[in-house]
Structures are given as C-alpha cells and as structure tokens.
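agent> call fold_tool(seq_1)
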Amino acid sequence: MAVRTRVHLVLVHGLFSSAKVWTAFHTLLTTDPELADWVSVHLFEYDSPLVRLRPDRRVAETDDVADQLGTFLETELAEAERIVLVTHSQGGLVVQRFLARKLWVGEGRELSRIKHFTMFACPNTGSGFFLTVRSWLKIWNNPQEKQLRPFDRAVTEAQRTVLSAVVHGRAYGDQECPIPVRAYGGSADEIVPPVVARGVFPKGGVVTADHFSIVQPADRSAAPYRAVRTALREAAHAPAEEPGDGGGLRAPRSPAEAAGRPSLPPPAAGELDLAPFPPPPYGTLEEGKLKGQERLGLVASLLSEQARQQVHVLSGLGGSGKSRLALEVADRAQRAGRRVWWVSMPELSLRMRMIARDLGAPSITVERAWLLGTAMDLVWTLLNACPDPWVLVFDNADDPERLGPRDGQVADGTGWLRRPQSPNGTVLVTSRVRRQQTWGESSAVHHVVPLGEDDGASMLLERTGGLGGTNEQARRLSQQLGGLPLALRHAADVVKAVSESQISLDSDIRDFETFGRTVAARVDAAPGQAGPDLSELLGREIVEKVCGIAMDLLSSQERAQAASLLKVFACLSIAPVPYRCLLGDPPLSQSPLFPGITPARTHAALAGLEEFGLVDFYEREGVAERDLAHVLTLHPVVHGVLREDREVRDRPADYYGLAVRMVIRATRHRNPDHPANWPLWAALAPHALEVSRACLLGDLKLSDRTVRTEALELARLTARYLIATGLLGPAYDLVLPMVERCASFGFDVDDREILGLRHEQGRIHLDREQLSQAEEVLSRVVLARTRILGENHADTLASRHKLARAINEQEGREAEAEEMLRSIVEAENEVRGREHYDTLVVRHTLARTMRALGRHAEAEAEAWQILDISRRNHWPPSTPEILRVRETLTHALLDQGRATEAEQVIREALRDAAQPPDSNMVMRFRYTFVLVLLGIVGRTPEAVNELKALVRDLTRVVAPEHPLLVQARALLQKLLREMPG
C-alpha cells in the first residue's frame, strides 16, 4: 500500500497504569513492514498513582490529564497533519473529555487533524469507571458515592458532546468535528464488561480478550492489532476537507443534497433518554439569601431525618417565595450528598421519563412503560429501590390533579405524587392549593407566610444596596406590600433602577417612601389584610400594581418595547423560555407590536426587563447548544397577571399570534421526527402546547383565522415530536380535545388542518398497537384527504402508508396491505422522488409485507436496494430506519437458508446501532442473531449461550410478560430439551 502522508499514532494508557501497558503493541507496530514508512508511534504518559485516588478529585484530575494531552498534541505533534488516538481503559475517558472541552470553548477546528479514535476496554459510564476502581483497589471499601456522582455526570456530558458533535458530526467548525470512533470490549473482561466498554458508541465490537490482554496482542493476527491497523489505513486515506460556508469545513454532500432534495439529517447522540437530568435552577439563588427565621427553620425541618419518607406541600400565596424555599432545600440537600430531581410541571412527563433513566431503568423498560401506561408505577418502583438519599420536587403544582392517576385523585397516592416507601426519599410540592383533602391525609401541608417587617426591610435594603432609604422607610414599604417577597423584589429593583438610571424619567419615584406613595394610589389595602393574613386576591393585586409601576417606567424610557415583549413571553408557558431561539426575524419585525424593531432594540428591551426584575436570566447546566442553554423565566404570578392585562385581552391576535409564529419560526426545518432535533423540541414543546391550547381551547376571542390555523399547525408538529419520543399520553391529550372541539374554534372535522391532527391520532393508536382503532381513524382520514387533496398528495400518501401498516400488522391481511403499499410506492416515486427518505420508509414496509407473504427473494432485493440508496446519500448506518431494514434483510436471507450471509448483516447492524445496549431495538437484534446462529450447522451451542445471556439480560430489565422475553424463554427451553445430554 503506497502511502505518502505520515500518520501519527498516539497511545494513551489507563488508570493506575503507565506507558508500559503498550509494550506489545509498540513492538508489533514499529516492526511492521507495512507501516514502517508512514506511521510514527508516540506514547502519551501521565501520572496516575494508585495511592492518590480521591473520588472528589476525579473530574478535575481527568480534566488535568485531558489538558496535558492537548499540550502534548500542540507541542510534540505541532506539525502532524494526521493523528490517530488509541486508548486503554480510563484513557478513553481522558480523550472524550479532551474532545468535549475543546468543542465547548469553540475550538473544534483544532481537532480536524485527528482522523481516528479507538478505545479498548473503556468504562463508558461513570458507574462503570468506579467498578474498575473497586476491581483495582480492593482496600477501597467505602467509595463515597456522593462524591462519585459528579464524575458520572462528567462522563455523561462528555459522551453527549462526543456523540452529537464528533461521532455524528457533519461539518468542521467551532463546535463540531466529525471523527470516526470505535469502542471495543473484551469478552472475558471482568473489570469493564463488553456492554460497558461499548456504551453508547455505535461502532466497535467485542474481541476475545480480558481487560489487560486486549492491549497485549500476541501477534499481528490478533483482533485488537488488526483494528488499530485498519484505523491507521483509514486515517491515511481520509479525504482532505474543503472549506465550507462561513469559513468552516463541510462534510461531503450527498447526491440528494446536491440536487436540492431533502436528505436525512444526522441522528442525535443516541436517544433522548440518554440526556442527563437537568439540575434545579440554582442560578436564581444568586438573588440573595433566604430571609425569615421561620423559613430557615422550615428548611432545616425538611432536611431532617424526620421529614423523610413523606410528602411535604409548601403552600401559600402566589409570590410568597414557595419555589425559592424549595430551591434552598434542593441546594442544601444536594450539597449534603442527596440526589435531587426538580420537576417543572409543564415538563412533567418528559422529566419523569428522564428520572426513570437516571435511576438506571433500561431503555427497553422505559419504552414499554410509557407505551402501556405503567410509567407512574415504574418510576416509583425505581425511586423506592434507590439506595441513595434523594429529594423529588414538583414545582408550581397549582393544578394538583396533574400529579394524580388518569382515573383518580391525587390524594389517592397512586399517580406521580406518592408517599415514598423508602426511608431514603423526601417529596416536596410547591402549590397555591393548601386544602389538606386535596393532597391526602398522609401529606404534610406547610403554609408559607409572607415575610415580617424586619425581614422584608432587610431584603429591600440589601437588594437596593442601601439606595432606597432608611430602615424605617423600608419597614413601612415592606408592610405596605404585605411582606410578599415577589413584590418586595420588584419594588427594590425599580427603586435601584431609577436611582442608577442615566435617563430622565417622568416619575416621582426616587426611594422607598415615594414608591410606597405610588403603590398606595393604586392599591386600596383593607386594614388587617397585610402580613400573614393577606388574602390571595389582595396579594395578587399588590404584585400586579408593583409590576405595573415597573412597566410604566420602562415605557417612559427608550426601551418602551420591553413591556410588549414581556406580555408576549407571558403568552408562553411558565417553563424556562429559550429566548435566543425565539427572538428573530421575521416574526418580530412583522408584528404591529414592534414597529421599527432592530436587534439592538431587542437587546435593550431584554436588558430593561432584567434591570427592573421582571424576568430572571440564567444558563442551564449540561446543555450543549448555547441558544438552548440561555433561558429566561417569569414568576407564575407575574405570568398570570400579564395574561389578564387589558391590552393582551383586547389584542389576542397580535400577542398570541406572535407567540405562535415565534415558536413556528424556531422549529422551521427542524423535523420533529428526527432525533437530532429533539433537544430543541424538548425546550419548546411546553410553550407550543401552552400557546396552541390557549389559541384554540381557551377563552380568547380570536377573530383572526390565520392565527388559529397557525396554532393548529404548531399543535400538529408538537404532537409529532411527542409521538416520536414515545410520549403518547401527552400527545393524545393534545390532539383529542382539538379534534373533538374543532367546531368551537371555527373548523370542521374534515378541514385539512383538523385532518392533520386526526392523522396523528391514528399514529398514536398504531404505536399503542391498537390496530383496529388505528385502521378506523386512518381510513376516514384517507377518504377525506383523498377527496380534498387528491389521492397522490403528500399528506394523503402519508395517511395511506400508516393505514397500510395498520392493516399489514393484522394477521392474515398482508395481501391486502401489499396492494396498497405498491400503489403508494409508485405514487411516492413521482411525488417525492425515488431516493426520498419517506419513499424508502414505505418501500421497507412493502419489503416486510413481501416476507410475511413468503416471497423472501423479493423482500431481500427490496432491502438491498434501500440500503444501496442510503449509502449513496451518506445516511448514517446508525439511522433507526436503516437498522430496521438490515433486520428485515437478515430475516429474508435466513428464510432462504443463507444464514452465513445473514450473520454478517445482523452483526453489522449490532455494531452500528447507536441505541443503548438495553434498548428494545438492540435486544431484538440480539434475538435475531440467535436465530441466525441456529441456522448455521455446528453453531447451536453458541446460539444457546447467546440466548441464555439474552434471557438473563431481559429478565433483569423487563417485566416477565414482555413479549420478547416470553419468546426468548420459550425458544431456550425448546433448545435445552432438544440438546443431547
């Protein structure tokens, strides 16, 4: 092989090891005649002594080594154009952190000379790493679990970045750099089992070796050596990148892209379920210390041993500081080593699903639970079994029934809200609802009262920096505002902003005293209704008037559009708002609310809202996309007050219409069915749900039909996202009321906008395996769409395909489905094109139907054609639909007695699958692999061993009645009966 470009191989050892571990590899590589002329071998060594292991320093030490590696590459290999990184054990985590940290600071272009990254026996989970520690260090009996969790999160966040921006990277730029990555495990490795070594990385494999021999090849025929040599060859012949748009480097374009046709985007980093659970909004703790001895005492009480194994409801007026108090509990609990999950109610189903994964539930189990409606039981089984102390917070549960079961009351304790059965658990709820009967007799309801005069005065003085007046003036204003922390905070921010303003304001407000006079002119507080006895109505009025003062002042400045912008934000959900994704053209500039708006004016408006304390800005931890990480929040009381604002009620089409258009613009060209787009949809879904429901099912008097039509389209797209991510319950709750009540907002069930929702309703039934209901709904949709749009319209074809699937999956109706599918494929070829992704999805359904009808050769030919097109268009082999096509091909080959060819196909599918090893897809592929082995003479014992392992893994992660486990057990019992001896 003639190679002109030199390739530099860097070998990185693991924990408690040294460069000596590479002796065998180094000898074989440097004496290999094929590599001698073009490969240089470098040993990267770092200090990792056994005796210095400190769990609480693991993240920092790993990052230190990652930085050392970066320095090594910059100095020792400054002139190298092509670099291959090969690692053993923890060395793989070092390289992952190195890559991720480079990408986080926008230095992705510096990674473009790294052409390959191979890991051997890398503990690709944080817990997997500490299993290796225990194996190495027998004397370490107390691993200090509370100090290990940050490392576990560090591993996860690095992997998410490497998977999304490196493994599945498409462009060479500041925050993305595509590099081939392989992860190998040893079949006899008892320190890092193969399933841990493979982790979430789609490519790699398992070789016959243990943890040490995997990097000590006996000769050049050993699998690990051949893997490294292959990586070197690929690096030597990797194509040179070309500058792309914006000065970056662009990956090769597919034929579909070159022709201007839609092509499949790269998949995301595995699954949505792999994302780490986001931390509570600790950024708001920077607002100042918690005030009030009574509140501090309550915090201490909630953190005590006596508070465990109980539900605690923090109830009180809106603006009384319930969430702030819960956040104080969460922060102190986490600092004390407890696990903390903070669930914002608009994101309830998604967050509870993430808790299940965070507690170790396998993907296959989570998928099944959300499909069958047993998710609540699953999460609570996991919580009660959690060995660590934990705190679960449900914030702003002002509609308590959302925490209850679908067919019962929250007080029943059988929904999302339950009393922990384990002494490790504590549950907190913040809500304005204080009735004991609502929460159940087993819940402890704590009434959060407003602050006393002294504590309120202290808050005012500290927040203004002493600019507002004397202690007595602060006490009087605190009493006047009822001791409500939210009102006090807004008052302090207004006084401070006025005092520091460089702009002349048309206002008498200068300090606490003048602010109090302004409030008095707007609020008529009845005697005896301040302090702890403040009513909800009066408390809301106080907050409303204080906010009104701030907004009036903003309107008198050069930032007059800030008030309108705040009202638009109030049309969205109370969930965090990723404002950078929403505030762009053309929606803002086309709105009559913002004449002459410019980016500079938008920035000034946001600054004004922050200066007057009307919104909180903070950055979400663990979010890779910067535009999604930066969010703002409105307090729920401010949110509710602004929704009742007279201008918002008088001009709903302008305010709510703009909110709808901002979300639609942010999601344009971001297909909700594709995993790469799910992080964006996860951030925007609560707002899409809220604004579409408000426009269509709320009490707004929306005369603008265009806004209602846009709201319907937003609802349809949001339903697609929820269905794609397995959140079928929320999807059904969104779609069904809009279909049933469409006449109330001026639409007919057969209008094309409602047909879009009915199509999604049919998909939900199909995914729930309710085939007869799916067929009934989709049949009617097809008839209506055919009549209105035509038989071969793209929307009609989509419904025809789903209908054909519903029919095909009913036993004995395959021939009927085949006829439908052939006509759909013929139409799709004309409408979308022969190589469009949607066309190939229909062709795959047709291939499965052919196989079910016994026409195995035809099914094989169809599958091969689909795979050829996918390769020609550079679709990643880890794309779920492409993996399913390879599964179909495996069965078609097996049906024809060609088990040896089938083995190669299913092995490659298992290698390329990006889903977790415990996902439904990978488990199903493993079962198919067993069937293939049984078809090869002499491989039955191997098949039995594989099947035993599969049954063992399934038994561990799924319920006994799971269909795949039942099937696998039956086959194993049959094989064991038939085997001799």
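agent> call fold_tool(seq_2)
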Amino acid sequence: MDGIPAIPAQRNHPEAARHAPRTTQAAQAAPGPGAVPAAPEPGPPATAPAPSPGSRFAVLGPIRAWRGREMLPSGTPQQRALLAVLLLRDGRTATAPELIDAIWGEDPPQQALATIRTYASRLRKVLDPGTLVTDAGGYAIRTPAGTLDLGVARSLASDSEQARTAGDRALARTLLARALDLWDGEPLAGVPGPHAETERSRLVEWRLQLLETRLDLDLEVGHHAEAVSELTALTAAHPLRERLRELLMLALYRSGRQAEALAVYADTRRLLADELGVDPRPELAALQQRILRADAELACAEAPPPAAAPAHVRPAQLPATVPDFTGRATFVSELGAILSAADGQVMAVSALAGIGGVGKTTLAVHVAHAARPHFPDGQLYVDLQGTEPRPAEPVAVLGSFLRALGTPDTAIPDTADERAALYRSALDGRRVLVLLDNARDAAQVRPLLPGTAGCAALVTSRVRMAGLAGAHLVDLDVMSPEEALQLFTRIVGAERVASERQAALDVVGACGFLPLAIRIAASRLAARRTWTVSVLAAKLADERRRLDELQTGDLAVKATFELGYGQLEPAQQRAFRLLGLADGPDISLAAAAAVLDRPEHDTEDLLEALVDCSLLESAAPGRYRFHDLVRLYARACAERDEQPPTERDAALDRLLDFYLATASAVYAVERPGDRLPAHLAATHHPGLRFGEPRAALDWLYAEADPLLACVRQSSVRTTGRADVLRRAVDLLWAAKDLAESGANSKQYESAAAALRDAARAAKDPHTEGRARTALTNVHLVAGRFAEADDEARQAMVLAREADDPLPSCWAPNDRGIIALYQARYADGERYLLEAIENFRADGNHIGEASALCNLSRIHVELGRLASAIELAEQGIAIYDRMGLTLRLANGRYALGIALTQAGRLAEAQTQLTEALSLFHDNRQPLWEGVTHFRLAEAHLAAHRPTLAAAHAEQAIALRGIGGEWRRATVLTVLGKALQRLGQRDRARVCWRDAEAVFEGLGSPELAEVRALLAPEIAA
C-alpha cells in the first residue's frame, strides 16, 4: 500500500518529562465527547495511595503502559479496550453499562459484566497501586498530569496557540511539532469496539487539524520549500481536504512554482466536481485569483511595524544634532527608554562602543536631545579626547562642569577628589544628563559620573567599557544597507540617487556601510554637480585608492583609523597589520595564531585587545573579523610598516600551510586509508588534529569561506612561486567535500578556476592538471557535462605531462561518469576501466571502489544487471573493509540503482535508505537529494506513487540536487508520480518545466519528456 511518510514516533514518552503540562488529568482528553465508563468489582477504595510518578500511558498509537522504562503487559484486545475507555474518561468514573456499551456495542456477550470485572482485576495487578480504582459503582483510572500522551499533546497544542497569539511563530511551530511527534501510528491501534472506533476517528481528525496548523506556521516562518513535499503526500492521502490543497498552492507559489500552484487548483476543481459535484470553497478560489494576479502580499507573512523613533527636541549644552540623522531606531528606542527611567532609584549609565566613524557621537547626541524633557535641570557635554595623545584630564573636566552648574571659581577646590565630591553634591536633587564623548577608558569616566538617582550619563568610546560597573553596554555596528542608502540619499538628493540606484548601492557597499565614510562620499558628490553617482562608484571600486578617496575637508576615514592604531602596543600593531592581509569574511583563533606565528593563548590576548579598541570585531566565540575599510587600512599599514617586506608573504604562507595541514587531517579522518594525503604537498605547520569525523567536518564547513578565500588569494599574490600554487591546489583537493556536498560550490569553482588560470600562466602542468580535475568535479555537481568533460580531457593530457597520479586516476573516472550521463556507455566503460587500472597501480583501493561502483551504473544502462550488481558489491566490500562510512554510502547508492533496475525493489529501497541516512549524517545535501530521487524511482516502480512524490519533493526542497539537469530529471519522476495520483494538470506543469531544461541543454532525456507530454500535444 502507498501512504503518507510517517511522522517520527515518540516511543517512550520523553515529552511527559520535557514539557510538564499545566493541566490536570481532568483536562487531558482530546476535543469532543469523552469515553464511556466501567463496571464495578471489589477492590481498593477510591482513597487508595497515589500511583507512582513513573507510570505513563499511550493512546496515540497502540495502547501501552510503562512503569519507568519497563513496558507493562496490556492484555487481550478487549482488555486494552477497557484500559482505553478509562484513560479517555479524564479520571471520571465509568459505570458497568457504559463500559459494556463502549466495548461490545449492541451485541455484548452473556457474561459481559463478569468479563469486565476479570479485565479490571488483571489490569489492577499490572498497574501501580491506586491507579485503577473502584468508585461509585464503577471504575476510574486516576493519573497525575503529564502521564498520558494525549494530555501532553493537548497541553503542547494549547501552549502553541498561546505562543502564536503572542506573535512567537517559531516557538508555536516548535511546540506543535513536539505535540505531533507523540503520535506513533494509528491512535488506539488494534483496540476493538464502537467507542474505540469513534475516538480513533476523532483523534485522526485532530491530528490532521494540528498538521494543518503546523504547516500553516511553516509557511508563516518561511519554510515553504520544505513544506511542499509533506503537503504533496498529504493531499494525495486526503484528496478532498481543501485546506491542505490551499496550503500546497501557497507553498508552491512562495517557492517560485506559480504554474504548479495553479495546476493544483485545476486538479482540485476537477476532483471536487467528479467526486462531489461541487466547486472549490471560496477561500481556495480567492487564492487562485491572487496567484493569477501575482499578489505581492502572498509572498511572505506580515512583518511587525517598525518602532517609531522619539521626536527631536531643542538642545541645551549638547552639541547640535545632525539634521539628516538616519536609522538606528532600535538603539534610539533602547537608550531612550533607559534615560527616561532615570528618575528611579539608580542613576542610569549607558556606554556606547564601536569602531571609529560608526556614528557613536551622532547617536548619543541625538538620543540626548530626545531625552532632554526628562532632564529639566540641564545637560552637560564634554569631548574627553580619548583618541588623542593627551586625553582630557578628569580634574579639568570637573572644573568645567562645576562652573556650568553655577559654582563660582573661588569655590572650586584644587584636587580631583574634592572636585568630584563637590560635583556630586551639586547634582544632588537635580535631574541632569551628562554626555561624556570619546572616552579613553573607564578610569577617565568614573570621576565624572553623577552619584544620585534622577541623573544619567551617556558615554561613547572606541573601547568597550566592561570595567564600568552597572553600565548598560551598547556595541554599535555599521548601518544596514537600507539605512546606509537612506543616509546617502538625504545628503546627495533623491533625484540623483533615483536614476542610479544600483550605483548608489555600490557606493555605500564600498563604504562598508560605515556612517562616516558614507557621509564623506555623499558630501563629495553633493559638492560636485558634474559627477554622476557612477563616477563616484568607479573611484571607490579601486581598493588601493579607496581610503584616499574617502576624505573631504577635515573629515577622513583613514585619519579616524590612524588615531586608534597609534594607541596600540607594538605587538598589537603587528597583529593588526598581518591579520589584515588575509582575505575571507573572518578568521578563527587557530588560523590567526598561524598567521602571527604565536601560541593560541598569546594570540587570543592580542586579538581581544584589538576587539576592545574596536579595530577588530568578535564575530563569534573564537572567530574574528575586520570591517572592510579597517582591513584596507590594516593592509596599508602592513605595506608601510611591516619590515622586512617578505614577512607579509611569510604570514600568508603560514596561513596556507595551516589550512592545508588541517584539511588533510580532516580528509584522513573521514577517509581512513585513502591515498590522497600521500600525494599532497608537505607543510611546515602541523595543523589541527581531530579524534572523530564529526568534529573534523564541523571544522571544514565552519572554515569553508576563509579557506577558499585563501586559495583564491594564493592564485594571485605570488607570481612565479610554484610552491604556493601547488599547496593551494592541494588544499582544494583536501577540501573536496565542499564541492561534492553541493555546499560552497560557487566559491569552490571560483577558486579552482583562478588556480587553473594562474598555473597555465606559470606553465605549471602539475598544478593546472589538478585544478582542472577539481573543476571537473564542480561542473559534474552542477550538471554541466560538456564543460566537465572538456576540463577532464585536458587534465588527463596534463597528468601525463607532469606524471601526476592524482588526475591520471580521477580524470578518467570523472569522464566515465560524464559519459554515463550523456548516454555514451561504451566510452564510459573504457574510461572507467582505465581509471580502475590506474587506481590499482597507485594502490588506491578507495578510488578503485569508486570506479567499480561507477562502472556498475554503466552496466545497468547496458542491461548487464548481474554484473552491475556484482561490481557495486565489490565496491561496497572495499569500502566496508576500510571502514569508510561516506564512501560506503556511494556504494549502497550504486547498488540500489542496480537492484531497482533488476526489479529487486525491496532490496533496492533498503540500500538507498541506508545510503540516504549516511549522506545525511555526513552533511552531503547534494547526495541526499539524488538519493531521494532514486528512492522516488524505486517507489514508482513498486506502484507507490505517494511515496515517490514525497521523495521527489524532498529532492527538490534540498535545493542542492545538482543543477538544472538533475532538477529536470527529478521533475520528470515527480510528474509521473503525480499523474498516477490523478493530479494530471500539475504533472504536465512538471514535465513542461523539465522539457524546457532538457531542450536548453540538448539532453537525451528530452525524448522521454516529450513522449509523456504527447497526449496533451495531440489534444
């Protein structure tokens, strides 16, 4: 039978412990009328001891009971029916006639009452004392809250509804998913009797309602692509349930599949007319019209309205606020709320920290003006000159503040402590706001803080004021792209920006969304009416000149950074310079230690000091990043100050060595016995070591972006240095999971292409051959077979020239796969036999197994199914012998394909399901996708179209199934499954999409799709 993919079952009721319901037992039944009562039997009174807290019961599946982890026997079907009736009574007593009617209906046995007493006696012996009680001539089961799975599910559903009402959709969805996880198949499974049948139908309907609600929440939180697979299966199982059809239409529309969404409506209208003689309900028809109109409101759920910024007010001693203040609504609201509450028991102190030019002073002044009504006794301001060689002395600032508060010069004492005491006395009973701008450190600030409630202080600094006890700390980041464009537009003028919006976005992007840089760039443009926005964007596009362009009048981004750099100690300055040389979005602590050639603990101290000075950002624990403009400044400092100049290249060499050594260790842990590490360049850095594959893969995927950036940078930074190019290409090979998994494919391809071009320019056949083989893999993953074959062909030529075993083995293996996809089976067999021979000559058993499994697929296409199965089993045997989990998945995948074509469908599904689990555990989304596709084929061959459609949808939802060609192959199979399910219109939409792809690629699969569409064309 074909059915819905099962929801994971909760076998031992962990929810009862994880989520203690608020309700009592009396509130645990599902919605609707309760069950029916039971017959009396002499036994313990209703006041028996309370049951053990370890007892638990399940009705959302087979009737089961546990004591702790021990499952208790529940007896015959009729005895389970009695237990079910009592569990569904909410602890209320059931009389004998009610129980007889519930279990046997209108045809009870002659000894029904005695039979019920027997069942009750048996249950009482099994259950904890005090659980089954005799009360008022009947029976009742009394259990604490949280011991019945149905009660837990209802509590979770109720909490989900409350979370949704409160606007927390993600929590609502999580709670509802936990409730659904409690189902373990059909509720009250195997329980006889009319009452069980009624309750079973009601619980099945309730589960469907919960599913609909959870799927609705999936769409609200943006999981529309993932929901399509489940909705496709559910609509097949419940074809007349219009709400599911409505959700499927919306999910398809939000996934960019408008034609399929409309086809679902056409299928639904035809089905309702044929089966019921009615039209779709108004909500479904209205949704169809909105999809036809491409209603923008359907694209996503409503976002909450943005918080309003406080109104501007007139300043006192504060500097003037800028008239074009833009954005920062969250910070304005947060700081405003703190300042407005300063009339409480504690003086409010807020300290803003951030990189130079990020707008700390602008924000503080703006917030201070907005808060002025809360401080009627005045506002004090001072620039503490913390970035200058000689910052302001607290004693001088205190004298100035005292004068502003009306203290005569003759009354101002000489020492700092006396002035601070008098200052605090002068503020006693007043409500004054103090703005301390550009502070050097907490020691400079402390004497200047008011000492009484009703006053408040705002502090800005490039240093995070962690030592300022009780302060509310704010880390100010750069603007969002929208805020940055808005600021640029306010300065330049809407008309100039409107006609060159993309150029304006390029300008603010080149400014790194740093407010000071944006203001300088916009001011330069505003003062030059003959310039266009594109002219300015072109000037800023040159990274080497960018900082020089970002200056106007007395404002300069470089000068702002220079102030911070000048305060660093020599070791901190060196760390700042060298770390700025590395490309990539961020850098880990271990990688930074390699760049600096220092121990990790010393490196961490240096990096944290740079973070404290706002010259470096802490992206996450153990990871650091530069602002784009700060990185450019750091590189300029390295070119100017780093001596000898060769130290710059040495630092980047150490980083490349670190990545290569560590990636090689990852490869070795994941593929024990593989020959690849023996063919990689030697490194001077030992790299990191890993005890198990999961930690190794965690590192690889966390480092993907900076690692690939290092490869790209290596292709251009050292012209003529073959050793750098060879280590860089070997790093690509060691990190090949990043391409094979489908993750980071574009970055991997860019890095491989850059190395290929650099190696060709350097006339280095060794590096070029390896780079072309890496590119072959990328093109294969993307389904670009012509490009893949061309790269592999040239790699084979270069491998012979360089006598390099790696491309000599892998390039013919890849050409065999390409020939398979292009239906050139004789060529494919020839290439793979060559690959097998080369792998064996190199002693590479893993490569040999890979080629054997690929050859198995060639034999499948040639109809040699027995040898295809034998070849795949040989590959699996090698993988098994070497303990290779990920490669074993590839072997099972190949064997599953061969078994499917041989008609051994149950065995095929077993192999493919095991492969799917292994690919998932090893984070290979591309291979997960293609395995779902193969499972769809197997289920289709076994006449299970619902499961076939579900697997095909999951392949599409992964978004990493291997480019347009593979997406079209999945759509072909999905259309076949949908046609068998009666969804002909949607099936034709899938085939037409596949036809367009195959036609554009010139693929042989085009003929099959056109044959499927032939009836429509004939009509």
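agent> summarizing second result for user.
Residues 1-53, 302-315 have pLDDT under 50 and may be disordered. The chain has 46 helices and 16 strands.
agent> awaiting next instruction.
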